[in-house]
Amino acid sequence: MREIRAITIQEVEEVSSFVRRVFDQFIAPGYSAEGRAQFYAYIRPDAMTVRLQNQSVAFGIWEEEQIVACIEIRDGNHIALLFTDALYQQRGLARKLMEVAQQTCSTFAELSVNASPFAVGIYEKLGFIPQSEERVVNGIRFTPMIKSLQKS
To answer: I need a labelling partner for 82 at 20 to 30 A (CA). Which of 1, 22, 69, 114 fits?
Structure first.
């Protein structure tokens, strides 16, 4: 049975481990040692706990009590993390989590994300538009992207 819900502080360890596994599989090979270290520091359970207690909300999708996808929204409208297990990709889970994010961010005009090279095409399918060329900051490779939340 599939369940979508907010991630609790008690689940941060599991979520951190999940994100690291997916990152290592799809994104880490394109990052420098510095970039990998920066990302690992960002997803440490203690760092994630502090964010969830202060400026972030996070949601996960569980299948048979195992997390298979997650999203973290920081500062009200910035997608900080969006990860889907390899076995569950291309099944609409990222889209479902993005719908939750849009509901959560409904008072904002837009969502932003710093998309990894692996994820740029995925975010484009979700309606995001690149705002500049790829950048590298502290070893983290990303393309800044924006999605308008304006009702037309």
So the answer is: 1
- Interhelix angle for 45-54 vs 12-26, to 10°? 120
Q: How far apart are CA 3 and CA 97, in angstroms?
A: 11
Beta strands in 52-148 (DSSP E): 56-63, 66-74, 78-84, 110-115, 129-130, 135-137, 140-148
CA distance 29 to 59: 26
What lies within 8 Å, CB to CB, of 76 at 6+ separation is 105, 107, 108
DSSP 71: E
pLDDT single digits (tens) 54-112: 999 999 999 999 999 999 999 989 999 999 999 999 999 999 999 998 888 778 889 99
